[in-house]
Write a structure and sequence with these properties.
The protein is of the alpha+beta class. It contains two helices and three strands. The chain has a three-stranded antiparallel sheet. Strand 2 and strand 3 form a beta hairpin. It starts with a helix and ends with a helix.
Length: 97
C-alpha cells in the first residue's frame, strides 16, 4: 500500500474528534434519527431522515476501524520485510555452497 495513503489516513485520524465514537438515536415526531457522539461532544447530527442506521453505524465505527486497519497493515508490512530478509539470506547461503 502506498505510503501516501497511510500518511493521509494517519493525518485524518489525528485531526478528528477524539473517540471512541458512539451511535445515538433520537426519535422526533415518531421518526428515528441517528447521531454520532464522542466523549468530547457531538460529532455528527444530520436531519433525522438523512442518515440511515447503517451509515451512522459505519461512521461511528470508522475511527477505530481505520486505526485497526493501519495497525494490521504495519504488522503485515513488517512480516513481509522479515520474510523477504529470510529469503535473501537463504539465496545467499545457497549460492555460497
Amino acid at each position: 500500500m502506498s505510503k501516501t495513503i497511510v500518511a493521509r489516513a494517519e493525518s485524518l485520524l489525528r485531526a478528528i474528534t477524539k473517540g471512541p465514537w458512539e451511535l445515538g438515536e433520537n426519535w422526533e415526531q415518531g421518526d428515528p434519527g441517528f447521531y454520532v457522539t464522542s466523549s468530547d461532544g457531538l460529532v455528527l447530527a444530520p436531519e433525522p431522515e438523512i442518515l440511515k442506521r447503517a451509515d451512522a453505524d459505519f461512521i461511528a465505527a470508522s475511527p477505530e476501524l481505520v486505526t485497526e486497519l493501519l495497525a494490521e497493515l504495519r504488522r503485515l508490512s513488517a512480516e513481509r520485510d522479515e520474510l523477504s530478509e529470510q529469503l535473501s539470506d537463504q539465496k545467499r547461503a545457497c549460492c555460497c555452497l
